[in-house]
Design goal:
single chain, alpha+beta, Beta-Lactamase, Heat Shock Protein 90, 18 strands
Length: 577
């Protein structure tokens, strides 16, 4: 392939190949390094942010647990001394001093309140609550509920997190089990999530050990059907890059000690991907610019070598595309100038030869067209005169006169002052005279009618195209039985084409015979008659591929011949085409 290139093309090809290969290798290497580096930075940054969020929540939970442990110890000490009043005061002071603790209650194992930091009566059946059941079931750890509407009281309205743990206390000197329950407001809990900048649409999800929502920092994810929840359930623990709502996110998932909760941080890293895309565009721009500069220099250098040859090549290409042949003027090396001179001599000889061939083809087409057309009149005249003689012998003088008059009109249009292109109106009049003559000749064995669109009268057509088709319809399409034949001639405009239809109701033609007629009609060579093939060849000679003849038939029903030609108003003689 390289050997088939020109000198200039080979030079440019070699230079561009080397530059392109080096540019692509460097671009891939640099992009790969940048991609790996940014991916590592995103991963580490996400881990650090998640770690910081975890630490904030663990610090918060440790403070709650430390307070709860202190209350647990004071409960043992005060209850052993039956000093429940001081214990109740301690519970109330704890809620007043803390921004988070709203209510502290010590329940016995039946769910009845032993000590309540609030003066309001507690709701009934609290032992059926999940936070109470969890503390009774697993006594060794603290239990944190999901955020819920405070249910210590019947009129609870605030959202809280209930922290519970199974504790012991003395009741009249007897050591008993109970449940210490602390309601925490969610303001600080939510505030910890809001302090962290996770980027646009970045958010935090907290799920309990049953993978149920504890908290979501975005209103777009509050149930199990949200995409973020599905991603967390799929990854379980660890980090990964994900696409969420057409935004690139990096998710990190870790567990909170003491709670068995999982915290998932979704960090928006679209800016990193945008930087990567910007870098890609910059690299592509640099590579494209380098290639463009190299290509420009290559063209300049190659043109200094191959410009004379390219000029000659372009001139030859124009001649090949059909531009008028002309001499090419080339300056430069002696060999190229000599080649251009030889080429000019060749162009001159080819031009003269083409002119001779074109004139010969015009004369040949004209001769073919006239030869086909002149086959019609003598043929018809012989048959018509024979019919007139027969009518005269039968003393049918009125019909003889009628037939001679029609024949006179017929030949007046046929001659058309030597024109080969006549108006549609004259062609239809010619066909009508012909049908009138034949109707008399065949003793009125058929009727005919014309269905003409008035718009066709303004156009022209090659003369004597309807007569041969009508003649076939009479000779081959009329039934020998007693019924009268029907011939219908139509003319109309369809899809910017002039259409003629000749239809008769005779025997019809079987499909195989139609196929044979179509093949014979379209065969090259001299027409052997004045029928369908004669008309087809004359239409093709004059109109080319724009004209067509279509034959269709239903056996024992009808036969239809459709002539399709372009719309033309020009009435100039065929020699001008």
């Amino acid at each position: 392939m390289f050997r088939r290139l020109s000198i200039g093309q080979g030079f440019i090809f070699a230079m561009m190949t080397v530059i392109t290969a080096v540019s692509i290798v460097m671009t891939i290497a640099f992009y790969s390094f940048f991609d790996n580096t940014t991916a590592e930075i995103v991963k580490n940054s996400s881990k650090e942010i998640n770690k910081q969020v975890i630490m904030n929540y663990e610090r918060y939970i440790d403070e709650v647990i430390e307070t709860a442990n202190y209350l647990d110890r004071r409960t043992i000490e005060a209850s052993e001394l039956s000093d429940f009043d001081s214990l109740r005061l301690l519970f109330r002071q704890a809620t007043e001093m803390s921004d988070d603790m709203s209510t502290i209650v010590l329940f016995n194992h039946l769910g009845d309140a032993v000590i309540n930091s609030d003066t309001r009566p507690l709701a009934s059946d609290l032992r059926d609550k999940s936070w109470f059941i969890a503390a009774r079931r697993d006594r060794e750890i603290f239990h944190f509920s999901a955020p819920h509407i405070q249910d210590f009281f019947d009129d609870g309205q605030n959202e809280v997190i209930t922290v519970t743990k199974s504790v012991t206390y003395y009741d009249e000197g007897v050591l008993r089990y109970g449940v210490l329950a602390i309601d925490l407001t969610t303001e600080n809990f939510v505030g910890l999530a809001q302090k962290t900048n996770l980027g646009e649409n970045g958010h935090i999800l907290i799920l309990n050990e049953q993978s149920e929502f504890v908290y979501s920092s975005t209103a777009l994810c509050v149930d199990s059907d949200c995409d973020s929840k599905k991603i967390v359930d799929r990854i379980i623990l660890g980090g990964a890059s994900v696409l969420l709502e057409d935004e690139h996110m990096y998710v990190n998932i870790n567990t909170l000690k003491h709670t068995r909760w999982r915290i998932a941080t979704f960090i928006n890293v679209d800016n990193v991907y945008q930087a990567r895309q910007s870098l890609t565009l910059v690299l592509i721009t640099i590579v494209a610019s380098s290639l463009g500069v190299a290509l420009l220099l290559g063209f300049i250098m190659s043109n200094r070598i191959s410009n004379p040859l390219n000029t000659l090549k372009k001139h030859m290409a124009k001649i090949e595309e059909g531009d008028p042949m002309s001499e090419v003027v080339i300056t430069g090396q002696k060999e190229i100038v000599s080649l251009a001179t030889t080429f000019n001599h060749m162009v001159l000889e080819i031009t003269q030869l083409m002119e001779r061939l074109l004139n010969e083809q015009k004369e040949k087409r004209k001769s073919e067209f006239l030869a086909l057309q002149t086959q019609i009149n003598p043929h018809f005249l012989y048959n018509t005169l024979d019919s007139i003689v027969w009518l005269a012998e039968k003393h049918r003088n009125e019909e003889v006169i009628e037939m001679v008059v029609a024949l006179s009109h017929f030949f007046r249009i046929s001659i058309s002052r030597g024109k080969n292109i006549i108006s549609v109106k004259d062609e239809l009049s010619h066909a009508k005279n012909y049908l009138h003559i034949q109707k008399i000749r065949y003793n009125r064995k058929f009727d005919f009618r014309f269905e003409i669109d008035d718009r066709v009268m303004r156009y022209t057509v090659v003369k004597l195209v309807l007569q041969p088709i009508i003649e076939n319809a009479i000779y081959h399409g009329m039934s020998s039985e007693d019924e009268t034949g029907q011939i219908v001639i139509k003319a109309y405009i369809h899809e910017e084409k002039l259409v003629f239809e000749i239809e008769n109701n005779g025997y019809g033609i079987i499909p195989e015979k139609i196929r044979q007629i179509n093949i014979r009609m379209r065969q090259a060579g001299k027409a052997d008659g004045v029928g369908l093939r004669n008309v087809y060849q004359r239409l093709k000679l004059y109109y080319g591929d724009e004209a067509d003849v279509i034959l269709s038939s239903d056996v024992d029903e009808m036969t239809n011949v459709k002539l399709i030609v372009p719309l033309r108003k020009d009435q100039s003689d065929e020699e001008n085409h």
